[in-house]
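Issue 218. Parser rejects a valid record. Input:
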Amino acid sequence: MLRRAVCPGSFDPVTNGHLDIIARASKLYDVVHVAVMINKSKKGLFSVEERMDLLRRVTAEYGNVEVESFHGLLVDFCKARDIPAIVKGLRAVSDFDYELQMAQMNNGLSGVETLFVPTNPTYSFLSSSLVKEVAAWGGDIGHLVPPVVLRALSDRLAERR
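Output the parser choked on:
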């Protein structure tokens, strides 16, 4: 039986912090589903399809990562694919408060377990929102995102100017 887990997120855009968690999960599980959330009420910088394409490109080396999108409850995504575990990165204590509540709710709804992985200290401050803000002001984010994401982000911001 394959050991499966999911790494959920909006990934708008995917950062080196996200990749760190996905890479570490790919060593622990046979199949890692990267689930890109569809939130119709939020206008992302990248479409869901663009985010999925970027994720596929930057996770191709792992070989056991599948990128999909979902809307609705994450536990329903898990049930439909027989995924017993959610892997979440924690940057700080403030993340833990929120994520613990989500983990307890998900477990109560479906029995799905959540594994918390402490973020590599190099990325403890990193978020997609911060990356977009720094990039929009012309700051150097080359060390925060994979090269393919840096190009896509630079192109998208240039289009909007």
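Fixed in the parser; the record now loads. The first helix runs from residue 16 to 28.
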